[in-house]
Specification:
By secondary structure, the chain is an alpha+beta fold. It has a domain of 35 residues. It is 45% helix and 16% strand. Strands 1-2 form a two-stranded antiparallel ribbon. A hairpin with a 2-residue loop joins strand 1 and strand 2. The radius of gyration is 19 Å and the shape is elongated. The chain starts with 12 loop residues before the first strand and ends with a helix.
Amino acid sequence: MPPVPLDEGYPGRRRLGPFWIEDGPRLQIAGLVILLVFAVLFAIAMVFRPT
């Protein structure tokens, strides 16, 4: 049985290093929302930090 190359996967997926990344606008938007939530929480923490 011939070995399967690691870079071949399901359609709609791509490989980034050792990780498989799902392509699609919904997942990209979800990642952006999560990033924005953490950025807003960090900004709030910096504003209300004790002096």
